[in-house]
Each structure stands twice: as C-alpha cells, then as structure tokens.
Amino acid sequence: MTRPTLRFASAGLLAAMLAIGSASPAAAFGDLLARLFGPPPLSIQQMHALTPSCRTHSGPWEGRVSGDSEGTYNDAARVVSLVGCFPSLEACSLWRLRMSGSMQGRLIYDQCTRR
C-alpha cells in the first residue's frame, strides 16, 4: 500500500471507532478489539466462580475443561481443571466455549457428557 492509502485507511478506521460511541480513541480501539476477538480471558478465580458445582446442581450434563494457562494469569504456566453440571447440552456447550477460550495454552480435555 502507498502512504496516502494507508493514511486514508487509518483515518477511516479512527472515524469508524469514534462512531461506535466511545469517548476516546483508546476506548474506541478497545471496543473494536472486543467486537473482533470476543471478551478478554477470565482469571482462574472467575472461571471457578462461573462453574456450577455438581454438588449443588443436579443437571443431567457434565462439562469438563482442563488445560494450561501459559502465563496469562501469572508468570508461570499453571494447569486449570474445571467440572460443572448443567441442565442442558446447550448450557454446557456455552460454558465450555467460554472456559476453553479463557485458557491461553494447550487444552487437555474439553467435553460435555451425559451424567
């Protein structure tokens, strides 16, 4: 690309970000990234808080997600393992997608099964 084309594209991108309704270019850029790439990863504590315990929920579907968080939440890689129970396959699948999307390393296990 030539410089005038890059300038025009940059100006168009900035105008589009400001049109989204953010107060500043930095906030507009953050909004654009969230729309393009989805929500930011959850912390390990947030993942555990959003996982319905099988002790208190008697749903017929069990979701399991485990994997590595390669320095996303701390400087060292850490293994995370989650098990939750859900009323439907759809609820289990949505939870599983959100949890596996928050793990920034290798997924070891990622499945919903009937209890």
What percent of residues adopt helix (DSSP H or I)? 40-55%
Structural class: alpha+beta
- CA-atom Rg in angstroms: 19 Å
Number of strands: 3
Could you name the ranges where pLDDT drops below 50 across 5 or more consecutive residues? none
Mean pLDDT: 78
Number of helical regions: 4
Q: Any idea what the shape is? A: globular
For the largest beta sheet, what order do the strands appear in spatially?
2-1-3
Assembly level: single chain
Distance between the termini: 56 Å
SSE string: HHHEEHE
Largest sheet: 3 strands, antiparallel
Please tell me about this protein's structure.
The protein is an alpha+beta fold and 115 residues long. It has two domains: 3-37, no CATH class; 44-114, no CATH class. It has helices at residues 3-19, 25-37, 44-49, 89-102, and strands spanning 61-69, 78-86, 107-114. It has a three-stranded antiparallel beta sheet with strand order 2-1-3. A hairpin with an 8-residue loop joins strand 1 (61-69) and strand 2. Helix 1 packs across helix 2 (25-37). The longest helix is centred in the N-terminal third of the chain and has 17 residues, at 3-19. It starts with a helix and ends with a strand. The model has no long low-confidence stretch (mean pLDDT 78).
